[in-house]
Write a structure and sequence with these properties.
Low-confidence stretches: none
Strand content: 25-35%
Structural class: alpha+beta
Distance between the termini: 23 Å
Largest sheet: 5 strands, antiparallel
Shape: globular
Radius of gyration: 12 Å
Strand order of the largest sheet: 4-3-2-1-5
CATH architecture: Roll
Helix content: 10-25%
Mean pLDDT: 87
Number of strands: 5
Number of domains: 1
């Protein structure tokens, strides 16, 4: 089962291992993700679902419009994760 658009996921494999990303869509059984920096909205990365860990967090459609708003949403989640609240 592929995650829905707006779900925040954590990468489990690859050079982006351990980083949080937002699901932008699906293509050919893979998930398209972006982090707003290394992978901007206009150039999302295709990841295998096996290489992602789903979180309960989501972002709104408005937060997915720009790379800057994605970065802010992911930074907020990262700070909560580091504090042990997630």
């Amino acid at each position: 089962m592929l995650p829905e658009r707006g779900t925040i996921v954590c990468s489990l494999a690859g050079r982006d291992c351990g980083s949080f990303m937002v699901v932008l869509g699906q293509k050919d059984g893979k998930v398209l993700v972006a982090d707003g920096k290394e992978r901007p909205v206009d150039r999302p990365k295709q990841k295998n679902i096996k290489h992602l860990s789903l979180t309960n967090a989501t972002v709104t459609e408005e937060q997915m419009l720009t790379n800057r708003s994605i970065r802010h949403a992911l930074n907020d989640l990262q700070s909560l994760h580091c504090q042990g609240e997630i």
